[in-house]
Design brief:
The chain is built from 4 helices and 6 strands; from the N terminus they run βββαβαβαβα. It is globular. α1 links the parallel β3 and β4. The model has no long low-confidence stretch (mean pLDDT 87). A 6-stranded mixed sheet has the order 1-2-3-4-5-6, with helices on both faces. It is of the alpha/beta class. The longest helix is centred in the first third of the chain and has 18 residues.
Length: 149
Amino acid sequence: MAEQVIIPQDRGIVDSGFSELRVDGDLVFARSCGPTTLDDMKLMYELNTAVFDQYGYVLVLIDCRLSTTTTPEARKYQSERLKVRIIPSHTALYGAGIVTRTTVMLMVRATELLTGKTYPVEMVSDEEAARKILGAARERFRQQGFAKQ
């Protein structure tokens, strides 16, 4: 799959929590620039599902350096979706501040408590470390037989 740009980088900050969103093979990349809205969360799920359908897993890379929070509606939507199904995935966030880190950890813990399943999310300081984590996850998915390609 060639890189597919969903939201171009030069779009600027508007009514979305993402200033950039793209799919590159088995990887969904988002550059967060504000609060993640319900529409943002729905779009991320749509993209993640499309990548999963093609590859058998999905890797998610999020630049959180300018992120703020996730709206209650978006958190509720994510929680409801994760109760139904957790697809093979691995998420790496980089540059997250204390509010984002705390929110993400609370959401991950709540998901684990409600579903009994783990939802792999790692938070690191920079993009290089995040990509290294996702590279290892890609290999693990391939070794475990999840990869369709």
